Amino acid sequence: MTTAAPEENKEIRRRELAAFLRSRRERITPEQVGLPRGPRRRTPGLRREEVAQLSAVGITWYTWIEQARAAHVSAQVLDAVARALLMDPTERAHLFALAGTADPRTEAECPVASPTALKVVERLAPYPASLQNARYDVLAANRPYAQLFGDPAELPPADRNCLWLLTTSERWKRDFLDRDEMLRDLIAKYRAGMAEHVAEPAWKQQLNRLLAASDEFRTLWERHEVAPMSPHVKRYRHPEVGLIRLEHRNMWLAPQAPAHRVVAYLPADEESEERLERLAELSEPSGE
């Protein structure tokens, strides 16, 4: 099996980018962007000079992009062109992926969990489960998760993050029996994941916040260790039901950004399963 050389890959990406921009330009009518159609228009959509005008990009440079002659297109130009061509989030993500450039707006807004994903998380009860993004932000959690680890809804939005909690939460430090090993592992996974998002503001902001908050985090981060996503068993001591051993499993819901995954914590033995059931019973309202 042969693979394309790096330069050939770049050329393929440039051609795909050019074709994608042409297709998006041709589908936008002048009226959609507030331009007059005029009597002599032969182009099915916008002209190149109109896109250049709307995006404040030089006509020569935009023409080079559509001719696959531009070696590198900046995030600022891509952002302006995406806005001019009225791209939706999926189209915008595809544009930046073809250009091989990080989108500065990726996940800048609070992501919205889909109803289907929320239903999956809820139906995993009595097993703890949460919906997370690639940065380990907890977007949603079911009742067993809240009972066992604390309710994310009670925290400020910026603190609803597994790495932040494992670093700073006294409860997580106390009750996760393998907390130190878990923190080293999670930092290594975060560094590996961040390689694809190193220029994105949301990732940089979270990293800077952790570096400022914890000397321990800073020391571990400076080791430059990386680790893959893998299933493992966590030991957690609940103050009411005792030791629970949980196997940590990930189920990705989408391969592209924003990438969300359901994280389920499955009992690693019968005793842990019985204690999860006991915890669920403790939360049920008592009959009169």
From TrEMBL:
Task: Give the SMART domains listed for this entry.
Answer: HTH_XRE
Domain HTH cro/C1-type, residue spans: 20-92
Any Pfam family matching the protein? MLTR_LBD
Q: Which residues form a coiled coil?
A: none
> Could you name the domain of life of the organism this protein comes from?
Bacteria
**Which InterPro entries did the record assign?**
Cro/C1-type_HTH, Lambda_DNA-bd_dom_sf, MLTR_LBD
**Record's protein name:** Helix-turn-helix transcriptional regulator
> Which species does this protein come from?
Streptomyces bangladeshensis
